Amino acid sequence: MPPPRILLAALVLWPLLAAPCAVIGHLSLTAQPGWQLDNSAGFGNISLSGLRLPASVPQLLHRAGVVGDPLYRYNELQQRWVALDTWTLSLWFQAPPDLLRHRAVLLRCDGLDTVASIQLNGAPLALTANAHRCHTFNVTHLLVPGANVLNITLLPAPQYAAEQAAAYPYEVPATQQVGAIPDYNFVRKAASDFGWDWGPALAPAGINGGIQLLGHSSALLEGVAVRQQHLVNGSVLLAVDGFLLPVQSPALEVQQQQQQQLQGNQLARAGERGRLLLQLTSPDGLQHWQAEAAVSIPYFDSHTSECDAMANCSCCSGRSADSACPWLLPRAGGTQQTAFAAQAAAQPVKRSLSILLDSPRLWWPHDFGSQPLYSLRLTYLPASPASSGSAGRMRAGQRSGSISNTEQQQLNGQLRFAAAAAGVDEAAAEAEEAASATHSSTVTRRIGLRTVQLVTDPLPDGETFYFRVNKQPVYARGANAVPAHVFEPAVSDASLHRLVADAKVARMNMLRVWGGGRYFKDAFYEACDEQGVLVWQEAMFACAMYPRDQAFLREAWLEVRQQAYRLSSHPSVAIWGGNNENEAAFQWFPAPSRNPKLYASDYSKLFVEVVRQAVLGVDPGIPFVDSSPSNGVLSREPYVKRWGDVADSRYGDVHFYDYSSDAWDPATYPAAKFVSEFGFMSLPSFSAYRQVTEPQDWRLGAPMTAFRMRHAGGLEQLQQQMEWHFLHAPQGAGASAPQPAASSGEQQQQAPQPQLEQQAQQAQQAQRLNGGAGLLSLHPNGSLKRRAVPAQLADPDPQGQEQRQFEAFTYLSQLQQALAYQAAIHQWRRNKADPTARTMGVLFWQLNDVWQGPSWSAINSDGSWRLAQHFAAEFYKPVLVSGVKVGQDVQVHLTNDLPVHVTGLLAVDIVPYAATDPSHIAALIRLNVTIAAFDSRMVWSGSVAGDILMATGLVPHLQQDQQQAWQGNDTAPGSSSGSDSGSGGSSGSSGSGIDSRGGDGGRRRVEAADVFLRLRFCPTAVQRQQTAAGITVPPPEPFKHNLIKLGGLVEGSLHGGSDTAADGQAGAHSGGSESNAPPCDAAVALLDGAAADQCEAAGRLLQCSESLVLLTEPKAARMAPANVSIQLTHGGRQQEDADGSYLATPADGGGTNVTTVSLRSDAVALFVAVENSARAGHFVGSGTLLLLPWQPQTLRFEEAVHPTEHREDVLGNISVYWLQKEMAALQSATWLTEGAAHAAAARAAWFLAGFATVLLVALGVCGWVKHAR
């Protein structure tokens, strides 16, 4: 046994060995500029050189000018050959001598998309078929000094998938979208790459990530997994798993090493020994913890078990794979990967150590607190071969502690003194450390400490389904995220950070990463950590049955495990899901119905055994659901599914889509526990759409309109909803039964005389409602010139009229979508207090987009916002006021998602559409109201006729032009509106008002069609729970508000108070105290250690909430014509020219230039939206804006992604839309049947295109098989 003083010296010297580590041998091949691309293995007509990666093949071809923009017009079809061709990427490179001196050299390929045949210096390495994971190969004996050549041949994924499907012993069905390529479920590539009902079918091949050579002479630390155990005393035990890639020794050396045995308590194969050093730094940088452990790592050979890299996996028995999990053993052939044994890379082994934190700072979702992130650094230090005796003196075990920066400096000196006293040669120790550092490897992470639970408590009829973070119940508000671009290499870190920031600005606290796309890059999860946005992460399987041969299961295992430990350190990841809608898909296809046991067995094998164990083997504590939607489980241990109808709202989460019912009717939406998907589609913003189309495409009847619609029947569904809410159906056409296709000329010939007269009146109405603003153009001299709006809707230029109608339809489709989302989300948030519902989460479909086409998204593909995203910033506020019309009554509800009780002022105003002065508005309600934490309740109810119309008073005097403007409506002034029954219509008593002066002199009876309600709740104070000293506060229950005792009142103040669009940015901040309690801590803290965080969050989030309640459908409302004028300012200065145009100039003194638009109206203008067609971005508050004649508004422009250099073209063309103007533009309905005809033609064209694609794929399969063999 070594002398005690040597052991003491070794112990105290270990903290000093954390010096910066030398980098292992590394050569980035993607950074090399000399890549070549050719299709000599395919069509053989293209050869490009001097290329840079990462990039997809379509991107490379586009950059070289071989093809145009793949998203432009019909290029998706014209460039289909690109996806069906075979492409080879080649690189000649020099292998540095320093790299070749390493014991092993690995080729690491991240993002091979997808079917790749890899050769190095002519020797085959592998055939890969999984774009969702990193592939690593041993190339030690293939590299040569000097010049080397790497060839990556990308075979067409559609052909590969078709070949795999044809060879499978039975049918494995998958969803077939309009215009999509089949068989996506047979290749591990983003399913949406094959086409979806919101995106194109490009199936791009390429290199999406980095390709690099890594040289190492000892085990290589390649990743970490982080697990947290929160103890009852508030401390946190942080367990960190390091994944080490063993060095791959020659076969003879392996045989020699296997004959040796380690001395100790257990026997193991001889291998490498070293140390793991874990360092942790507090968010403020003032505290440091460290732990270290001696580790032994077996050399890699063909018998190395994958169980070395797993924890808590039922597949592992001892150190070998159990026969129940054959996918753990590498196999050649099969549906996914063939790796040649000579180049097989080692699988990483897991080695662990831990740190105890006594007073941790907890990470919270942004609406509950702050997001403190600890800096974690894990280093592997191999023992030097020349100092094996020194290595033997190290004691296996761990050491941890917390020290400050000052203490660290003092301790360094003490340690050196202790080493000298122990008789250890300090110079020798430093030399040993230097030798070790040359082979060391380090991984860094930023982590947050938190607990997360999925609560599924039993109910009398069902189960709950909601999340707790740090024991606090969280109402999930958010959306579903799809891939950020059709080409993964085009996704920048900045765009991902902006996407998450846009979600947070809209008050979202959860994003669901949809299983039909891709795992996001690290930047997305880092942004969610920083912004306090929770992530529902799904494995990449969607809407299909999947094969379950052993090769496929192994690829799934490797993929999910790799992603699980990559994401395990992110506190934002709150739950893992096995797939999207695969269980629901059992009801979609005939095959599972004929043989349900077979497909249920396949499902359980892949998602319950493989995927679930891959996730829980990395982090046993993470919540997991095998599918979304699902009915949950009967038992978690053992894991037993509750099979059944996944639409059953009593259990689990639900996905809800209903395009035939009224999307604005709250009764349409079921009483679900958690809604993880729902939505309604709209067209992309015109400013985004025009980027990839031409003027001839800017009409509703254009073939392009139908071509971009990938949702079957989508245009008809949009039309149906519009006829219910905005438009009057054409003669003889009902909203529930669109008419067969016919040309617009035939309609005009058959239209009766009254309809022609009505169209003429509607054209006159459009002229008045269009106003005088129109478009502003930025001239070369920098001045903004107002472009004249056509004098009449019946423009002499038909294309101009059709474009105007197209823009109006686009706006109304987005407003229709936004109001549908508002109706549904208001209802589901109110349902939190409904004992039959107890809804605790809503995630709408979908947040973002991949191209400029119709979809369910709230953010366009260029980063600009649709109206739904603007509405989300209101309907997702954590303290919400909402109104709902139930029969002939209106109810006003308050909803509170915060862990504090909120007191504020509720105001309900009656606003006439024809109001021109503040005196025309009638104040209906002014109440001081307190809403308890996590509560939702009705605070006022009244009848339309008896309470609202009676309180209105006189309707403002009606001008003659207003009377004319109303002629286009079915309802004439003074009559009852009965066309909206069941969904906000006015009939019977709700349509009656009071005749204030007998109806003479222009005065008349007030009706529901004359007014709307504006609801507003502004918080003024927060209240806390009152708890006696020493009493432990139990976790709050979101459904038991009557048990909460209110404590002292903490006064707050509202900053602002005006009715501006920016008023939502003002917050109510705690500012007082009571009973000697700290003002913030006592105000909102429900748990120890979170007081200041939650106080800050409450102060930031308590903002005025506002919403409108329309008493009739918009088409039945008597809206006054409105003329909106705008004035732009750039950089904080503006100058008006003599001709009335505006000259925008940059701000003096540098800095960020701010572009704002000021709007004025001569009448009430509803839902005013402003778009900038020159720059991607949005005007804050656009779309939700209620513009009153006496109250001008100013909106600030936010760019989608901040440019890296200053640009002056921020203004460009500014378009302004509002409800009255766009409704008037679409009252002529001749476009409807033409659009239906083109939609039918598009479906026929897609059938032919799909048949041609299948034929080309089938013809290419034989050639691919020949090439592969």
Please outline what is shown here.
The protein is an alpha+beta fold and 1269 residues long.
Structure explained in plain terms:
The protein is of the alpha+beta class and 1269 residues long. It contains 28 helices and 59 strands. A seven-stranded antiparallel β-sheet has the order 3-2-5-11-8-9-20. Helix 11 packs parallel to helix 12, helix 21 runs parallel beside helix 22 and helix 21 packs across helix 27. The chain starts with a helix and ends with a helix. The N terminus and C terminus are likely disordered.
Write the layout of secondary structure elements.
Blueprint: H1 4-13, E1 25-28, E2 35-38, E3 47-51, E4 55-56, H2 57-63, H3 75-78, H4 80-84, E5 87-95, H5 97-100, E6 104-110, E7 112-113, E8 115-120, E9 123-129, E10 134-138, E11 146-155, H6 157-167, E12 206-207, E13 211-216, E14 220-230, E15 236-245, H7 251-258, E16 271-281, E17 287-298, E18 316-317, E19 320-321, E20 338-339, E21 349-357, E22 374-382, H8 388-392, E23 401-404, H9 405-421, H10 426-437, E24 441-447, E25 452-455, E26 458-459, E27 462-463, E28 466-469, E29 472-474, E30 476-481, H11 493-505, E31 510-513, H12 522-531, E32 534-538, H13 550-567, E33 573-577, H14 590-594, H15 596-616, E34 624-625, E35 633-636, E36 639-641, E37 654-656, E38 675-678, H16 686-689, H17 703-708, H18 714-725, H19 744-750, H20 753-769, E39 775-778, E40 783-787, H21 798-830, E41 841-844, H22 867-875, E42 879-886, E43 889-896, E44 901-912, E45 922-931, E46 936-943, H23 944-949, H24 960-965, E47 1011-1025, E48 1046-1054, E49 1068-1070, H25 1081-1084, H26 1091-1101, E50 1105-1110, E51 1124-1130, E52 1134-1136, E53 1142-1144, E54 1155-1161, ...
Parallel strand pairs: 30-31, 30-41, 31-32, 32-33, 33-34, 37-38
Antiparallel strand pairs: 1-13, 2-3, 2-5, 4-12, 5-11, 6-10, 6-13, 7-12, 8-9, 8-11, 9-20, 14-15, 15-21, 16-17, 16-22, 17-23, 18-19, 22-24, 25-28, 26-27, 28-29, 35-36, 39-40, 39-59, 40-53, 42-43, 43-46, 44-45, 44-47, 47-48, 47-50, 48-49, 51-54, 52-53, 54-58, 55-57, 55-59, 56-58
